[in-house]
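Appendix B, Record 12. Input sequence as logged:
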Amino acid sequence: MAQYTYKARDKYGKLLKGNIEAVSPIAAEQQVERLGLIPINIEESAAGLSLEGFLPDISLFGGISKKDVIVFSRQLATLYQSGVPFSKSIDSLMEFSRNKAFKNVLAEIKKDVEGGQTLSNSLAKHPKVFSEIYVNMVAVGETTGLLYDILMRMATILEKQEALKAKVKSATFYPKIVISAIIIAIVILVGFVIPKFAMLYKSFNVPLPLETRILVAISNYFTAYWYIFLIAAIVLVFGVRFYLNTNSGRLWWDRNKLKIPIFGSIFYKSMMSQFTRIFGLLFQSGMPVNRAFELMRNAVNNKYFTTKIDEIHENITKGQSITDSFKNSKIFSGIVIQMVSVGEETGHIDEMLSKVSDYLDEDLDRQLNTLQASIEPILLTIIFGMVLFLALAIYLPIIDVINFAKKG
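Logged structural output:
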């Protein structure tokens, strides 16, 4: 268990501070609530900081991270449930927020709320911080009186999305570092080391093995035409980025990245988990299906899937069932279609979608763990092969040079 320090208010509004032991920040917050207090800020104490605490957060550089929105959602929900007015709640959140950019946003929200605007309208003025789905769900919560539940659910969804992103980044971080190191090492060897050995081999006029001839040829081309390689690399990078920023380029990439071996499956399950969880929440809130699909097309960061959502929306408008529309889109897996079909028959689509999302999250977690376990030996094999090739290419001629010198 980790140690956490908390700041909270009692039912009289008095500010209290203390320490608590819990397995996670959420568990710590729940313990504080069981004490009859309203948690304002909960942080892991210095003694229990993990490596994550030393990693830079986007909020430290003037940005607003999803973590800020998650904390805002949970704390505002707790204060709202306790009967604290929005204006005073936002004051408390501003007081303990360490992010200056987010403080400025909260100050503007407070000003709008005090001016008579609804919370959802105030949040809508900051689309870079609060997504359209977030704002619409808050509006539903205000209308139905279920704002506490909505805010807590949105916080949970955002947490799951951030946890999933962190797992994907963690799984791909090690390969990126290793591959980058290999590329840098090859450039240094080909550009600076091999030319020195090539001059040595040439001075002794000894026959070179195939590996060495290949390496020397590559080195000669690289040192003679390095500027062409540099220009080609720059043009390639900027050309690819430009193409992917176009509608056709983005559509091509978003469609084909789902077909990449191993990683395509990860992209697909991540996208489906996000879609099913958010769509289930929208459906549960009582939002019309047409409006839910309008919001979903902006929530999924995949142009190809957006076109599929448009097709589904059009088919449902024509009178098709959700199950048939999902089936005709030919992008949903069998389990998603089956669960949606059961949900339509029983009238509990939201529950079925939530179960599908949980299943996809667990399946993706297993796949990422397997990938992390298997990718290390693959990379080690690649590194071993590269080192072996370089060793043979560099040192075999040296042995020949030594033998030639002895004979001379």
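Strands lie at 2-9, 15-22, 38-44.
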